[in-house]
TrEMBL record:
The keyword RNA-binding is assigned to this record: yes
Coiled coil: none
Protein name according to UniProt: Transcription antitermination factor NusB
Pfam family, one: NusB
InterPro entries noted in UniProt: NusB-like_sf (IPR035926), NusB_fam (IPR011605), NusB_RsmB_TIM44 (IPR006027)
Keyword list, A-Z: RNA-binding, Transcription, Transcription antitermination, Transcription regulation
Gene label: nusB
Species this chain originates from: Paenimyroides ceti
Amino acid sequence: MINRRHIRIKVMQTIYAMQQNSSDLMDSNEKFLMYSIENIRDLYLLMLSSLIEIQKQEENFLEVSSRKHLATAQERTPNKKFINNHVLQLLVNSNQLNEMIHQEKINHFEVNDHYIKNLLDEIKKSDIYKKYMINNRNTFEEDRELVSYIFTEIVAPSEKIYEFLEDTKLTWIDDIPLVNTAIQKELKQIKEDTVEYRVAKIYKDMEDKEFARQLFRKTMLNAKELSLAYYDKTKNWDIDRIAELDAILLNMSVCELLKFPSIPVKVTINEYLEIAKEYSTPKSSIFINGILDALVKEYKQEDKLNKVGRGLIE
């Protein structure tokens, strides 16, 4: 689920928090870093649980309505096409998904069910839902399309859900797009013969997990050496007035150039320029690009780029 750019962002945020708190406790901050990444799973489970709770909310509503003393004919024999939706049923009946939701105590939308009621109201107002409910066809493709639409167009962009997540855990804010994109992709890829909805892994592999740990440790343990590497490259810039985030991104990028032989030079530069555009000042990416470009030229001349594999230095 998590990609290397997001790992870099998490490391950047951890180092920034350390500097803001004047902390030099490597072990505790490393634990915080790894915890903040692992905690993405809870956000992932929470967002998936919204679909489960939507199905349960509607199923309960239909059940209660059918038992009313003066229930109408429609209420006594309601249209159950939505609650029987194949994809929703797959989520509701997934042993692995529900076991993890239970283990991690992901009951936020169960306790705060007004969010689910609001989402359900929006769903029922949508044209795609209305067409779905009056359509006598009952295909898996139609079911998948509806659930994908609900999550992509109603749940994921909900401002109320965003505010709720922000209030629940501040570290989730930067994780929301990552998680929502992962779920959208998973929903679109569900096949009719899928028996069990499999919960996504946080890391692609153990190398990515180790990358997070090593990038943090190597950047922090070599901070003085890394900052000296670009000290004379900051033309017309007072080294003490460089934006704090820019200095962190420079240290991390220089660290990757020198101490991560398997990562191509172009990848390192492009990744940190994109992060700078999103998180730092408007001119940061230009500033960082200029310094890295000068450094790479120097390192090539001095044969300091010990990259493993063809094409990694270019």
